[in-house]
Request: fold
Amino acid sequence: MIWQTLIDVAIALATFGAFVIASVTANFSGVLLDLDFFYPLFMSYVWIAGGAYYYFHWERHEPGPEVPPDIPSPAPLVSILVPCHNEGGNVDETIGGLITQNYPNFEIIAINDGSSDNTGTALDALLPRFPNLRVIHFASNQGKAMGLCMGALVARGEYLVCIDGDAVLHPNATAHLVKHFIHGPRVGAVTGNPRVRTRSTLLGRVQVGEFSSIVGLIKRSQRIYGNIFTVSGVVVAFRRSALHMAGYWNLNMVTEDIDVSWALELKHWAIRYEPSALCWIMMPETFRGLWSQRMRWSQGGAEVLLKYFNRIWVWRHRRMWLVILEYIISVLWAYSLMLSVVLWALGKIYAMSEGLNVPSIFPPAFWGLVLAGSYMLQSAVASVIESRYERGFWRSLFWVIWYPTAFWALSCVTSLFAFPKALFKRRGIRAVWKSPDRGYRSYAKG
Reply:
């Protein structure tokens, strides 16, 4: 009797499964197009709602970046780590900016990671001028993760602030980062607010939109509905004890910042976002440089997902589920969009069945207006929030409203190439420095 019942159940499930498969196949192209269109639209409103909630719940009550927070006396020692590779033309500005930090107790540790230019000489020349600066030299290129690990080993502070060798930190940024550790014993890391300063080309200007209407809103939203996917490697602070528990930075991951974020969160350390911790950064202003950077970011996200996938689906890690699910759907969306384009192109050559026919890869006029209006609303919300961090931000609004379209297109293409690259990557290969495109050096700051 029990075997007959099991057979009946199996037949029922198989029938239901066949029905579902037949239904999906009959309108396969419709399913693809719905995912292609509605996923970006849905996420736009998730980011708008999350960013607005974060702003009204926390952000608007804060004094802003120009007012340093109250730090108890005596202030805890902070170690500022600056890994450098071929940054000879930038270290004077970067270290000089750190000296102006409005924080009473800090040291600076610069790590020259096997630079082939004059980075080592330039750093050594700064030592007589800045007594709280220490310099570490590597004989060969060991990678950013190794540089950070070495800096953490020799650091004396419990709190570590990490910035890139071409970044300029706001004078109050360190204090804004450290306040979270003082008032939050479970805070393991705090990610800051990168601001693009390379704006001499169209690519540079539209990236202003990415770090405001996209990145800023995403971090605010993720702080609301789960955990932050990753800290910003260009400006972030860590609690040393949390880093030790997480195993520090992985030497083999192409994006050490994403990996250490997940490692911390799997150890139940919280990651927070501090928009008042401003850091002015250089971004690529050529298509080749931008492509290389975004490929690395996409590959890093895929590597981390593959590494930790089997460990996150337990109840104690439930706060990570929505963020992970969002990332997985974004990868599926990229392949869905690619398949839609392929089916559309094939339809121009062959007579496709109704279920596989994609008449157009562009949304109907009404839905196109809905999508464009949503992007404009997203940009408007971002401009209202971000205006307190950058004077004259409204002047970039023309470029900001176009970036969501470029963002989704770039995310799609890089995901297509990066995920297989991460899947078939040889394990145990050290991730080392490659000098990036840093723009054309014509920038606005402040």
Remarks:
- Confidence is low (pLDDT under 50) at residues 11-25, 441-446.
- The chain has 14 helices and eight strands.
